[in-house]
Design brief:
2 copies of one chain form a homodimer. By secondary structure, chain A is an all-alpha fold. Chain A folds into 2 domains: about 50 residues, Arc Repressor Mutant, subunit A; about 150 residues, Tetracycline Repressor, domain 2 (Orthogonal Bundle), CATH 1.10.357. In chain A, about 70% of the residues lie in helices and about 0% in strands. Chain A has 9 helices and no strands. In chain A, helix 4 packs parallel to helix 7 and helix 5 runs antiparallel to helix 7. The longest helix of chain A is centred in the middle third of the chain and has 27 residues. The mean pLDDT of chain A is about 90. The interface between A and B is large, with 41 and 41 residues. The structure holds a DNA duplex (30 and 30 nucleotides). Chains A, B: Keywords: DNA-binding. Chains A, B: One of its GO terms (molecular function) is DNA binding. Chains A, B: This is TetR/AcrR family transcriptional regulator. Chains A, B: InterPro entries: Homeodomain-like_sf, HTH-type_Tx_Regulator, HTH_TetR.
Chain lengths: ~200, ~200
DNA sequence: ATTTGATAGTTTTGTTAAAAAAGTCAGGAC
DNA sequence: GTCCTGACTTTTTTAACAAAACTATCAAAT
């Protein structure tokens, strides 16, 4: 019975890998269940044996990606020597996360509204982990006495994370309002975020 | 000839006022040229005598609003006693601008992409004025020696303005990704922005 | 120079049919 | 009983097209 479940888990994993590749290269709506099944040389019906529907399959891939990301954050939790280091780590890790899975997230841009509700749960987990990481770093500094006491570290981190998300490209004349940045702009955005960190962390001292 | 032009300008102004009201209450797409003409007891054809088309009419209203906003910024240009005051002024003025014309900007949310190109020109003017105002304030402080010298004030202001735009509501669990904030959230956003100012300005010291 | 009714041209909306994809199920293999 | 499939049903997407609504134009009137 355990052996059976192992087999199941292995197959589930295979399905997730194949799905990840498809979603990564073609996005959610341009990927069909038949194609995924074809990649694995199995029938479409079998996919539905392992996953209830397409969006759950997508979400399962997403949860796996998110889980990897969360793991990276947790591994470093409480191990920072100063505030700046913590903020830098969060921004850099996040940057890599987005760059490595850029096309996968086309799903967000395409559907814009009416996404499956469960997606926000995962997004919430990620955000909470980021908040926890940075709020803890702030609290540590407060305890050490190296920055002034603050009323509410979480509130500050929320503002910081929002501010990060606001950073866009297009200096002098904004041209098109595009919610999702183009891939070739990610590095420029990243650099601006590093500048924001400099100022923000200094402002907390 | 001058009298004639005066008359023209007065009528143009009337049209702009009526259009403003319509756009403000019903948004761009839910306002028809017939309705505007009806409000003014004139024929639709006459509207086209004064304005080339509907989007140009909308843009004319927008330019008027933008012009008022720019005037407010210019009146205070260089008259700040410290950096914080300048940043506060910009954020507060911007807040009032959005609140007072909230529904007018539904146009942006509805059309999202494919807006008339001229709109970005006006948006650019606003942004440039904001940048100029704040960059000047920073430079003044640098000259006074009350904050450290910075390599590029404009770059810093751009990051600040982007950060401001990123401030959203929805603390713990984000629910719906909505590009345009709801009206009832504007005050909460405003308060968060004030917090950002505190930290950001301090970070420049 | 201003104004309008009539009308031409275009965009939006609603309908329907065909195609494609999602999702189901009875039954076969092990 | 677990895993798997081909055939099938249901739902969604796409395309085509007609009707309605709206934008935009223009000859003629004041």
């Amino acid at each position: 019975m355990n052996a059976t479940n192992d087999q199941q888990d292995i197959k589930r994993e295979k399905i997730l890998e194949a799905s990840h590749q498809r979603f990564l290269h073609y996005g959610y709506s341009k990927t069909t269940m038949n194609e995924i099944a074809g990649d694995l040389s199995m029938s479409k019906a079998l996919l539905y044996y392992y996953f209830p529907d397409k969006s759950e399959l997508y979400m399962a891939v997403m949860r796996k990606l998110a889980s990897d990301y969360l793991k990276q954050l947790e591994d470093k939790f409480g191990h920072f020597t100063n505030l700046r280091e913590a903020f830098l780590f969060q921004v850099n890790t996040h940057h890599d996360f987005i760059v490595n899975n850029y096309n996968f997230f086309d799903f967000f841009r395409l559907n814009e509204q009416n996404l499956p509700d469960t997606i926000w749960e995962t997004v919430g987990h990620i955000r909470n982990a980021e908040i926890k990481l940075l709020a803890n770093a702030i609290q540590s500094e407060v305890d050490k006495g190296s920055i002034q006491a603050v009323t509410n570290p979480v509130e500050i981190v929320e503002v910081f994370l929002d501010a990060l998300h606001g950073i866009k490209v297009g200096g002098s004349v904004p041209h098109k309002k595009l919610n999702f940045p183009h891939k070739e702009h990610l590095d420029e955005i990243h650099n601006k975020r590093l500048l924001l960190i400099d100022i923000f962390v200094k402002g907390l001292k």
